[in-house]
Design brief:
The protein is α/β, with parallel strands linked by helices and 242 residues long. Helices cover 31% and strands 19% of the residues. The chain folds into 2 domains: 149 residues, 3-Layer(aba) Sandwich (Alpha/beta knot), CATH 3.40.1280.10; 59 residues, no CATH class. It binds S-adenosyl-L-homocysteine. The site of S-adenosyl-L-homocysteine has 18 residues, from β5.
Length: 242
């Protein structure tokens, strides 16, 4: 069973959208669990303070390292601990897959200006960003991470979750999809997809996957290349050798 524990000031936000559709069914069936823990429960003063003003001045408030540490220590059990922050490493499908294959995750949600930086020096925490924009809090980012993981759990999505053809699984965007009617507002479904010729369909999909990746996401294409990828050392090597 994959276990998510969310450390948040807004525990009522969970499971939220993940209580619906496929993730919701998997939750009800016990394929995964979602436990939201209120960071405020680990405050030590009578005002239940969790934040304080930024050292050096400036607007907003900063989540206190001592309160954060107490909340982490209360739930830590060897699962990876992630903190949601726009300063983090951008989330990738490869990291999602790694998390989904593990025992679950502890996910720390920021609010206000974010976290006292010293928490990252004193606890093993992976700083994760879901993209180059700023949210008002980490809760929706945590839901994004959880949604991406849960759909990969065995049985959650059925055949579709093998996911090998999905965008980003191969380093490419997936090809576009069509469904009936065959002709809509003067637009026909591409002939190859109606041919019934499986090899031709596969070739069409592969070609669209490549051209769309090249035109829409030259950054991804740069890494993918012609089926070759740049190894960390900088040496070129065939992708299927990795
Ligand atoms: N002052 C911070 C932003 C704080 S936004 C900065 O400029 O780096 C408040 C909280 O929202 C953050 O602590 C984080 O938990 C969450 N958040 C905002 N944008 C995010 C993103 N792109 N990815 C993940 N979490 C994000």
């Amino acid at each position: 069973m994959w276990r998510a524990t969310i450390l948040t000031l807004y525990p009522d936000m969970f499971p939220g959208p993940l209580g619906h559709s496929l993730a919701g069914r998997a939750l009800a069936e016990g394929s995964w669990t979602c436990e939201a823990v209120n960071i405020r429960d680990f405050s030590t003063d009578r005002h239940r303070t969790v934040d304080d003003t930024p050292a050096g001045g400036g607007p907003g408030m900063v989540l206190k390292a001592d309160v954060l540490a107490a909340s982490i220590d209360a739930v830590a059990d060897g699962r990876p601990c992630l903190a949601m922050t726009p300063r983090g490493r951008p989330l990738t499908q490869a990291r999602v897959r790694g998390l989904a294959e593990g025992p679950g995750a502890i996910i720390l949600c920021g609010r206000f200006e974010g976290f006292d930086e010293r928490i990252f020096q004193r606890r093993a925490i992976e700083e994760v960003s879901i993209g180059d924009y700023v949210l008002s809090g980490g809760e929706m980012a945590a839901l994004v991470v959880m949604d991406a993981c849960v759909r990969l759990l065995p049985g959650v999505m059925g055949a579709a979750s093998s996911g090998v053809e999905e965008s980003h699984e191969s380093g490419l965007l997936e090809h576009p999809h069509y469904t009936r009617p065959a002709l809509w507002e003067g637009l026909a479904i591409p002939e190859a997809l109606r041919s019934g010729d499986h090899a031709r369909i596969a070739a069409w999909r592969r070609a669209r996957s490549e051209t769309d990746t090249r035109s829409r996401r030259p950054d991804l294409w740069g890494h993918h290349g012609d089926g070759r990828v740049q190894s960390p050392s900088g040496a070129r090597q065939k992708k299927n050798e990795e």
